[in-house]
């Protein structure tokens, strides 16, 4: 069985959004604008991602966006980031028509900025296959996340490996 490996870069488009909120420093309700800057804090078990918002007087407020699990064992950084693989970016797609039946496509997630579902991510990065077909392949075990059967709504994380058996 042949394996074709790609590096997957996932970035969510960010738009500066605004929130009306009580500013503790100004003492009144004011408009906070997203600076599109992200901050990460860790407590040992979890990594928290925050969006930094600013009011017109430059006071800041941090909105919690996501919580990630940290690694519990030592991980060699050399094994995490593939360098010799072809990178698939936002607007690029993989064509499954050129791939034979005995081939496996492996996608290694090297960048994740935002929240991405497995089925939606694959539907946006694979040409000629619908999201419904991807969901059926996930349920049949033809698409695995980190070598195990998962649900289509599973969130894709940094350093995940997605295996597609054609």
Describe this structure in words.
By secondary structure, this protein is mainly beta. Helices cover 13% and strands 46% of the residues. It is built from three helices and eleven strands. The chain has a five-stranded mixed sheet with strand order 6-1-8-11-10. β3 (28-42) and β4 form a beta hairpin. The chain is elongated.
Into which percentage range does the β-strand content fall? over 45%
End-to-end separation in angstroms reads 11 Å
Number of helices: 3
The biggest sheet amounts to:
5 strands, mixed
Strand order of the largest sheet: 6-1-8-11-10
- The structural class is mainly beta
The ordered H/E elements are EEEEEHEEEHEHEE
Radius of gyration: 19 Å
The overall pLDDT average reads: 82
Number of strands: 11
Low-confidence residue ranges:
none
Measured as a percent range, the helix fraction is 10-25%
Which outline best applies?
A: elongated
Output the keywords.
166 residues; mainly beta; five-stranded mixed β-sheet; four-stranded antiparallel β-sheet; RNA-binding
What is the compact description of this entry?
The chain is mainly beta and 166 residues long. It has helices at 77-80, 118-125, 131-140, and strands at 2-11, 18-23, 28-42, 46-54, 60-69, 86-88, 94-95, 103-113, 126-127, 143-145, 161-165. Strands 6-1-8-11-10 form a 5-stranded mixed beta sheet.
Record the SSE blueprint.
Blueprint: E1 2-11, E2 18-23, E3 28-42, E4 46-54, E5 60-69, H1 77-80, E6 86-88, E7 94-95, E8 103-113, H2 118-125, E9 126-127, H3 131-140, E10 143-145, E11 161-165
Parallel strand pairs: 1-6, 1-8, 7-9
Antiparallel strand pairs: 2-3, 3-4, 4-5, 8-11, 10-11
Helix pairs in contact: 2-3
